[in-house]
Amino acid sequence: MALYSENRQAAAQAVLFHAAVASRAGLNVTDVTCLALLDKEGPMTAGQLARRTGLSKGGAITAVIDRLEKGGFARRRRDAVDRRQVIVELVRDGAYAELQGIFERFSKAYTALIEEYTDAEIAVLLDFARRSNELVRSQTEEIRSR
Which residues form the HTH marR-type domain (predicted)? Predict the structure, then answer.
């Protein structure tokens, strides 16, 4: 099972990469995960962020948002439609800009690697990645629901 072994190694390397990024920013991996979600999916409520990360809606997500806000990575704002809702959003021109630079360098290197493959090979890799991601997502959900 060489592929399984390499995939586990890739997952471990991804965790170490995110830990290094987090350490550089004075954050932890959970904080960086939340930043990545906000970057990919856009502003959301604390409750939505908690659900997406599996953190508790009360103290845990509040502590994350407090750290992100204190570090200048994110801010809270009232929803324009429902003033009771508080939205969390990235501050792209703040401390997050340095992290974006790190992720952009990684993205360029990753894109260069992908470009070494044919379209047919990429299609197989993409199918595997999607199915693998869904497997991990469903297994994570199963663990959380027990």
Answer: 1-134
